[in-house]
Specification:
globular, two-stranded antiparallel ribbon, mainly alpha, 1% strand, 314 residues, single chain
């Protein structure tokens, strides 16, 4: 009788535990969709809030400055007595940094990706890839001082007439900063190409380099192009490196040896106190920020389109 009572008690305990666990699971099943929706909702509301803030302040700027002057002229002197608001001087500085950075980052990033994907052993890949990605975690202000105090003196010893503040030095360092992004995303895309495709090419007599450049890379085109476009977006939006090493001279000329000012560097200059709140100079940073927002948005949309357009499914 005691054994029966004991067995019954154990069954009741198991049943109670199951009910308790089921009850807890049901609660989580009901709560989790709400929490996940709330997370997505916060992201959407934040994006809308940013767009609304930019639009509201942008309206105040264009009440005082014609859109034609902002988008149709090339002189940017908002802090002078004779104010000029031709944003293309800042766009040209940003473009110089982006071009130089991509000239550095694309070949080195793709070469790193090819090595990690096609030549490195599994052990070497597990060691080298995290080390490479650590570079992406270095604060950009450190990169800025690296550009100003290390890269610029080296370049000045090689290039006579190079100014202490110039576009070349920060452009190179921004490219170095972007290498891990391009290498990591491209390596993931190349590693996703099935091994049987490589084996087929090798079986036809192709070398490993030919397999990498003529078979694997074309098959991973969507991921590689997406990594390059995302790297360009990162270069366009970079702030601290160009602020420290690029100078503050907006010029509508493509001369990497001279001082420049990028869109983000101008925003930092005004935001740290060079213009009072409510002045036209203050509102100009929202106009520049809105244009920067449009540029990066278009780049990201293009990256998404490329990813969908050239995606290979095996």
């Amino acid at each position: 009788m005691n054994e029966q009572n004991k067995e019954l008690s154990i069954r009741e305990m198991i049943h109670q535990n199951k009910q308790k666990k089921l009850s807890t699971t049901n609660v989580f099943d009901k709560i989790m969709p709400f929490l996940l929706f709330l997370s997505a909702f916060v992201s959407v509301v934040t994006t809308i809030g940013i767009a609304f803030t930019l639009g509201f302040e942008l309206f105040k700027f264009f009440e005082r400055v014609p859109v034609a002057e902002f988008l149709g002229t090339t002189e940017w002197y908002p802090l002078s007595a004779d104010q000029r608001f031709g944003v293309w001087a800042l766009v040209m500085g940003t473009l110089q940094i982006t071009v130089i950075a991509m000239l550095v980052a694309v070949p080195l990033g793709l070469a790193s990706a090819i090595y990690l994907s096609e030549y490195a052993s599994e052990r070497a890949r597990r060691v080298l890839k995290p080390i490479l990605e650590v570079l992406a975690g270095v604060p950009t202000i450190v990169f800025g001082f690296f550009a100003l105090s290390f890269i610029t003196p080296i370049l000045q010893s090689l290039i006579p007439g190079l100014q202490i503040y110039n576009a070349l030095s920060p452009g190179i360092v921004v490219g170095i900063m972007i290498i891990p992004m391009i290498a990591s995303i491209s390596e993931d895309a190349m590693s996703a190409v099935p091994k049987k495709i490589r084996d087929g090419a090798l079986g036809l007599g192709a070398t490993r380099l030919e397999v990498a450049t003529k078979v694997v890379m074309p098959a991973a085109t969507s991921g590689i192009i997406a990594s390059i476009v995302l790297g360009m977006s990162r270069a366009i939006g970079e702030t601290m490196i160009v602020t420290i090493a690029g100078g503050s001279q907006p010029n509508f000329e493509f001369n990497p040896l001279n001082a420049i000012q990028t869109m983000t560097a101008y925003i930092v200059q005004i935001a740290k106190g060079d213009a009072g709140y409510g002045t036209i100079e203050y509102y100009s940073i929202y106009a520049v920020g809105a244009l920067l927002f449009v540029f990066t948005l278009l780049m990201n949309l293009f990256a998404n389109w490329v990813t969908r357009r050239f995606r290979e499914e095996y």
